[in-house]
Amino acid sequence: MNLKKIRTALLVLIAAATAAVFLLPLVWMLSTGFKNDFEALAGQMNFIPKKPTFDNFVDGLTGELMNVPITRWIFNSLFAGAAGTALVLWIDSMAAYALARLPDVPLRRVLFPMFVASLMIPGVLTFLPMYLEFNQFGLINTYYALVLPYTAGAFGVFLLYQFFVSFPREIEEAARIDGANKWQVYASVLLPSSVPIMVTLGIFTFMGVYNDFVWPLYATTSPEMRTITAGIAMMAHGSYTQAYGKLMAMTTIAALPVLLVFIFGQRSFVRAITQSGIK
Predict the structure, then answer these.
(1) Alpha helix ranges (H) inside 166-243
(2) Are 240 and 156 in a shared domain?
(3) Residue ending a domain, choose from 61, 81, 96
(4) Number of domains the chain contains
């Protein structure tokens, strides 16, 4: 019994130490955001600012920082994340439904392995062809360039396919006996039952689109069209190279939407699991 308690205590200590390692940069970021530039540049390992100030946050949100439209960047990131997530959930769910439940889809036994195989292709290999394609159609530096690259992905199809293919056929057959067509089975039977999977896919998709850095950096050319990640990177290599307080304040503001989505999405995910059931 004592060995069990010791083992439990060691696991708790390891978990606490691991959590501290991951939380330390976040705490340092938040602390630096409340420091003035002189104190931030001092490089002292103090997590509590000597003279806390909200000026960095206020200046960023009110547009006082010269030629830096922070609020527009946040809007661009939120819009791209929300639109991309909505399209991914819609397109991937329909594709997974067709591959898993519709036997009359041509070559569906060949298409699904191709989807899975595409997961092994590094995204960097498709970066240049995708950029050239968007440039050819004149979509660079538009909202289309910020949204369309994320509108469908093999991961979402693979994730939803595993759920749809294991869904009891008796329920689907009962719906068809009641007069439901293929679209009604998809929209009224399968989708409500897949809420936990959809929430999970939505969380990861939104976080991926919102946090993406490389594509928005090259797909946008004007300051007004940049996302918050690309915008902060430009600030770090521009006029605010040594303005660590302002950079950390903007990074904190940029991290808040993703943090809130993850927290509330996680609650929705747990609630969906506990409350969901096949009636």
Answers:
(1) 169-177, 182-185, 191-193, 195-211, 214-219, 228-236
(2) yes
(3) 61
(4) 2
Residues of the domain holding 206: 70-275
Q: Does one domain contain both 167 and 43?
A: no
Distance of CA 98 to the CA centre of its chain: 25
- Give the end of a domain, one of 32, 61, 90: 61
Within 8 A by CB and 6+ apart from 49, the residues are 31, 34, 35, 39
Asked whether 91 and 244 are in contact (CB, 8 A), the reply is no
Q: Would you say 210 and 262 are in contact if contact means Cβ atoms under 8 Å apart?
A: no
CATH number where 182 lies: 1.10.3720.10
Classify each residue of 128-147 as buried b or exposed e, where b means 16 or more C-beta atoms within 10 Å of its C-beta.
eebbeebeeeeebbeeebbb
From first to last of its 279 residues, the chain has per-residue pLDDT tens of 577 888 888 888 998 999 888 888 888 888 888 888 777 777 666 777 878 888 888 877 776 565 678 888 889 999 999 999 999 999 999 988 888 888 777 877 788 888 888 888 887 888 889 999 999 999 999 999 999 998 877 888 888 888 888 888 888 888 888 888 888 888 888 888 888 888 888 888 998 899 998 899 999 988 889 999 888 888 777 666 667 788 888 888 888 888 888 787 776 666 555 544 444
18 and 153: one domain?
A: no
